[in-house]
Amino acid sequence: MGTIQNLDEIDNKILKMLVEDGRATLNEMADEVRLSTSGVRRRIEILEEKGVLKGYTAKLDPKKAGYSITAFLNVDVKSSEAGRVAGTLTRCKGVCEVHKTTGNHGLLVKVRAKDRADISEFVEDRVSTYQGVKDVDITMTIETYKEDFIDI
């Protein structure tokens, strides 16, 4: 762990800097990895072309943005309907992640909402009514200790 395969140490350092501070300047990265700014820029372009870097975004504090509750939904869905249900869920406000899983459930969905009532309403009025959904099991978080896309 700690480095991405098929990338050299410099690429991994650049990625780590971008993950930790997406606003790091080319000059700062160049100083850290001991390359020219044009060399760093070219490496970033290659990482983008390879699809390793998929975009740039701001990190929001969910609670300060009004999403104080996080829940994980285990959605038991007919296997033939999993793709369609997943596609519908990806377009729903508050849905952060949708994963097809092994085991008893077909989909694992991470949802953020302002309160528990919003989660319940989302499940009862929407998710549980989707064609192919057999059952939805809700797990609400009490506290989050770590949440990052990837730790390089």
Automatic annotation (TrEMBL):
Database matches in InterPro entries: ArsR-like_HTH, AsnC-type_HTH_dom, Dimeric_a/b-barrel, Tscrpt_reg_AsnC-like, Tscrpt_reg_AsnC/Lrp_C, WH-like_DNA-bd_sf, WH_DNA-bd_sf
UniProt keyword annotations, A-Z: DNA-binding, Transcription, Transcription regulation
Coiled-coil intervals, chain numbering: none
GO molecular-function term, one example from the UniProt record: sequence-specific DNA binding
Ranges where the HTH asnC-type domain occurs: 7-68
Gene Ontology biological process: response to amino acid
A Pfam family it matches: AsnC_trans_reg
UniProt-listed CDD domains: HTH_ARSR
CC per GO annotation: cytosol
Name of this chain's protein: HTH asnC-type domain-containing protein
